[in-house]
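Lecture 7 notes: from sequence to structure.

We start with a single chain of 472 residues. Read the sequence below before looking at the structure.
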Amino acid sequence: MKLTCLTVGTGRVWIAPAVLISLSLGWAHADRLAAAEPTSASPLHVGISVVEITPEEGKVHDPLLAKVLFFRQEDCQAALVVCDQIGVSPGLTAEVRRNTEKETGIPAAHVAITASHTHTGRAACKDVAQRLVAAIARAKAGAAPVRLLSGTVNQQETLSFNRRYLMKDGTIRFNPGFLNPDIVRPVGPIDPGLGIVLLRKPDGEKPIASLVNFALHLDTVGKYTELNADYPYYLAKSLQETLGGDFVSVFGTGTCGDVNHFDVSRPRQGSTGNTGQTMLTPYKPKPTAASPSPLNAPYIGQALAKTVASAMPELKEDAPCLAVRSRTVHAPLATFSEMDLAWAKEATEGQMSFLMRVRAGRIRGLESLREKYGDAMPVEVQVFRLSSKTAVVTLPGEVFVEHGLAIKKASPFANTLVIELANSDEMHYVPTRKAFCEGDYEVVNSRLESGGGEMMVEAAVGMLNELRAGAK
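Now the structure, written as tokens:
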């Protein structure tokens, strides 16, 4: 990609001038529509910018980036930011929103900060907030008209697998080990849908940028010895090879709290399998340039890119009818006893099983959250209406795939993209009520009480229906 380099403090920001484009979203907080909602006849503007957020220390395989989509139509404006990070804190979100409003005039409530969930992105550069604000400002400054096309296709490659299994003893286990003879079947689904929003210049057919949404955990590189952006890096690289170096690929991670890239009920790649393994380091085969091996970041990214490129001729153009709603629900926090807290504070982790370490960390984390919020945590759900056919939902936390599927099934928009880890990662996992009954790792690690995820789904579906009713 040919990028213009800017200096931001001690860091660097890259902007793709050839692809600074335009799409407009209205936004509202406290469940209110933005004023002067644009009509479908209004021109669409989107600005795109890219900034490096790689931490100052660590071995780098590929740089960690943040990609910004600035949206504007008439007097409505908003920004969607996707960071190569394992999560984003509410503190970072609040700082970026506050300073963005101060420096650009974009309302703070119109900015969404999301994380891709790459597992090596556990830290960012020290001035990450300043870099994100500068990138949003650049995206706004470069906004220009575009055409918007969209659609959802099934990813035909076998890439994703539900990682929660029913065992012969009736228990549910997360990743119970390759070829474990006690595996009966997975207890949850996957989401094969690949949501695509494609942007083109008004006077040509050449694609400029895309927003792609797929539900698959970004944990495909095995050991975390090198900083990297996981499979979305290879998705972007492959699309640039096909569509040109100026093409910008933005990836929004779908709801994949219970979805991995390997199937433990089948032989592990390159081995005869081992049984009874509680935690896994996914096998990382060594790909070749001609034939990348499956179950790793290059293979997955290239497979997704192939699907996106193949789907482009079938994507439908729709007149923009853009608005955004936001609703905050108060999800009950999980409870614990004084005895639980005393145990968690005194426990010696080196002498504990993996799940017990997770449980101890959860209790300590819940103590802090209850001091901050009380009995219930404020959870923000956002809905972007792009057109009468396409909407984007953002949810906080690592959300179970069933929640994303429920939103899509109930959505009145034919093409609904659901992006997780937006604006906060404080609640960790967001399981279903069914999963709370079943237990195991994701439930033990969640900060929410059973039903919090369903509250988020209800809020999202409600706003989708309201926005669809108001579409021009």
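The chain is about 25% helix and 25% strand. Keep this in mind for problem set 3.
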